Amino acid sequence: MNPTVGGTGPLPSGPTAPEPLHQEPAHHERVGAPSVAELVREGAARLATAGIATPRVDAELLLAHAARTDRAQVVRAAILGAALPTDGGQVALEVVGDYRELLARRADRVPLQHLTGLAPFRHLELEVGPGVFVPRPETEQVAQVAIDEALAAVASRGAALVVDLCTGSGAIALAVATEVPGAVVHAVELDRGAHAWAERNVAAVHAATGAVVHLVRGDARTALTGSDGSCDVVVSNPPYVPPGAVPHDPEVALHDPQVALYGLGADGLEVPRGVTARAGELLRVGGLYVMEHAEVQAESAREMVAATGLFDDIRTHADLTGRPRMVVARRAQVSVGTRRS
Question: Which of 11, 88, 102, 120 lies 20 to 30 Å from 296 when distance is taken between CA atoms?
């Protein structure tokens, strides 16, 4: 996991169809409802002072959440100089109060995703909150490598068996299940809290799209024994942060669960070693293993995979920022020593 305890749970999520923010005449704005533009400027200034890297975007998203609408409506209303929806000023004032409470918590470095209750991942919006690792944009490229391989397997053999070890919120597994028709996807998570969030996401995505993920609560190092030697893809975003490398961002250090961050061992790769060994058992010959790691772990991750004697064609792939982000390897026909590239 690439490296956020606090606050109450997220405010209730809004309706499926976003409620538009209405443009009101100037005299209506004087009832007491600030304009959207004023609220966004206020929020952006407050968050910038608190050291938030994307203050305006966060302010727009928090206002959208408080108003039960979407960010596009907030941006549009800000450009038009519109007021919030009002009912004699009361609804708008309630929204403003909720918004300012959200701003205060965000300024205290509670993760944005914990406040809205949602985290975007590829084309999905996943439910997240305290107790589960918030999926990161760089992991989307890890998912892409797994998706490409699964698509190739479906094209050549008509089906693909994909396993996501240490699934957390279920992000990678759900991306594969929704983007690769014909894939059978299993996901494994040991932590009780994270597994509960994954259950919610698996159920929600199934209800919305029909995609199926077979979720198992268990140890990624021993799970799915009945699938040995049959998987086309094993993908994992395991905990991999070394014990001394405390994340700088308070959102990560104070709010992401430690079990999802720290990979144990002096190099942070003790858990990944177990995951890698299990991947070698699950994969068919020629199957693909994809594992996320920290950008400083590229060489040690390749060496870790090579040390199993189960893989060849061991490579490092970059994320979209060009940073080394994952180790990718093929299941060998026989033990291959310590070949690496």
Answer: 120
Q: Which residues pair with 19 in a beta bridge?
A: none
Domain 26-116 has CATH 1.25.40: no
Residues of the chain with CATH 3.40.50.150: 121-331
The residue ranges of DSSP E strands in the chain, in sequence order, are 118-121, 124-127, 160-165, 183-189, 214-217, 231-236, 283-292, 311-318, 324-331
Residues with Cβ within 8 Å of residue 8, at least 6 apart in sequence = none
Burial 144-174 (b: 16+ CB within 10 A, else e): bbbbebbbebbeeeeebbbbbbbbbbbbbbb
Q: CA-to-CA distance for 341 and 286, rounded, in angstroms?
A: 17
Rounded Cα distance between 233 and 34, Å, is: 52
Mind listing the pLDDT tens digit of every residue in the chain (341 residues)? 544 333 334 433 444 445 555 544 443 344 566 889 999 999 999 999 999 999 999 999 999 999 999 999 999 999 988 776 665 565 688 899 999 999 999 999 999 999 999 999 999 999 999 989 899 999 999 999 999 999 999 999 999 999 999 999 999 999 999 999 999 999 999 999 999 999 999 999 999 999 999 999 999 999 999 999 999 999 999 987 777 665 667 666 555 665 565 555 677 888 999 999 999 999 999 999 999 998 888 999 999 999 999 999 999 999 989 999 999 999 998 654 444 43
Nearest to 310 by CA among 290, 291, 338: 338
Q: Any idea which fold 121-331 has?
A: Rossmann fold (3.40.50)
- Show the CA angle centred on residue 183, arms to residues 179 and 189, nearest 5°: 90
Pairing label, strands 283-292, 231-236: parallel
Nearest-angstrom CA–CA distance, 58 and 104: 12
Q: Which two tokens stand for residue 53?
A: 């890297």
3-state SS assignment for residue 328: strand
